[in-house]
Specification:
mainly alpha, globular, IFRD, IFRD2 regulator, coiled coil, ARM-type_fold, ARM-like
């Protein structure tokens, strides 16, 4: 009945609230907080499709992930790369995915080619680049 629907809606809103919270935490001063938020986002994006919710907030999220990649070290960068891949998967091959890919490609390449970055960060950015390229690059090259 309608109770089940209301329950589902409630769960969905709750899940979205948690996602919003994780997204806010990506901008936290504490690297620990940012890492925890990245891990939570990774789990959330890997477990269910939330593309509607993400579509509305993709620019905010992309911005935050960009900051994590630029300012973060090691594990944080690696997680940010993974979350980016998942975000790209959620966006799919439409204009949104392509936009995401185009905006982050230079940054992914710069982490990937940075000999000072940790191997896990470089590997994660390489994977994100490959995944996003496969899904979203309009230009086949």
């Amino acid at each position: 009945g309608s109770e089940a629907v209301a329950g589902e809606q409630g769960q969905e809103e709750e899940a979205e609230d948690r996602l919003k919270e994780h997204m806010d935490n990506l901008l936290d001063k504490s690297a620990k907080m940012r890492q925890a938020a990245l891990q939570s986002l990774r789990l959330a994006l890997a477990s269910k499709t939330v593309s509607e919710f993400l579509l509305e907030r993709r620019l905010t999220l992309t911005d935050s992930l960009e900051k994590c990649l630029k300012k973060g070290k090691g594990e944080e960068q690696a997680l940010a790369g993974t979350v980016l891949s998942l975000l790209c998967l959620q966006m799919g091959s439409g204009p949104e995915g392509e936009e995401l890919f185009c905006s982050l490609k230079p940054l992914l390449i710069s982490v990937l080619t940075d000999s000072m970055a940790s191997p896990s960060a470089r590997q994660s950015c390489a994977a994100a680049l490959g995944m996003c390229c496969y899904i979203a690059a309009a230009d086949l090259e």
